Amino acid sequence: MKTFDPLPIWKEPLEYVEWGKSFEPPMANAWLERIGDEICPIQAIAVCRLFVPNFVEQDGCVFLEHKFELDNFRILQAQLDSRAQIENLINHTHVYDLFRSNAEFDERPYIELADLLATMWERALSIAFDDRDFEVLATNSDQDYGPIVTFFTKENETT
Questions:
Q1: Centroid of chain to Cα 101
Q2: How does pLDDT run across 107-137, given as a tens digit for each residue?
Q3: Among 3-7, 34-38, 93-97, 155-159, where is mean pLDDT lowest?
Q4: 125-134, long-range: CB < 8 A, 24+ apart
């Protein structure tokens, strides 16, 4: 038997693994049980759009549809020389802003989520724009407000 994982960076959340170990015998695939307990189908549908977003193309630039505003684009277009710079700024997504919470939290899941989003956005972009190359980045720096995911057309592209 061979297994094939199209998302090899995914790993079961540690909290779910620990929860699964609390059962006798320990629960395999605890993540699947927790999804059934904590997430309804409506939430799952919405989260799918986060991982496989809709894109918009404007004047040769590609953006996350939910981040694109034409007026903002025009302002940046007048100020910046590079299509990649404009795309990078508009697509710039702070993972902390996707989930509103005042509670103290562990940063680890946000970093893991940024990596997963970057992987999925890269795959979605390659399907939607199979003739273009994009740089998709997940970063986490002390100079930024938590993990960030963004993408832009590679500079050598001539679309």
A1: 19
A2: 888 999 999 999 999 999 999 999 999 999 9
A3: 155-159
A4: 125/55, 125/62, 125/151, 128/55, 129/55, 129/62, 131/159, 132/62, 132/157, 132/159, 133/157, 134/62
Question: Rounded to 5 degrees, what are φ and ψ at 90?
Answer: -70, -40
Structure tokens at 12: 């079961």
The pTM for the full model equals 0.88
Cβ pair 139, 83 in contact under 8 A? no
Which residue type does 60 have?
G
The DSSP line for 63-94 is: EEGGG--HHHHHHHHHH-S-HHHHHHHHH-EE
Work out the number of other CB atoms within 10 angstroms of the CB of residue 28.
10
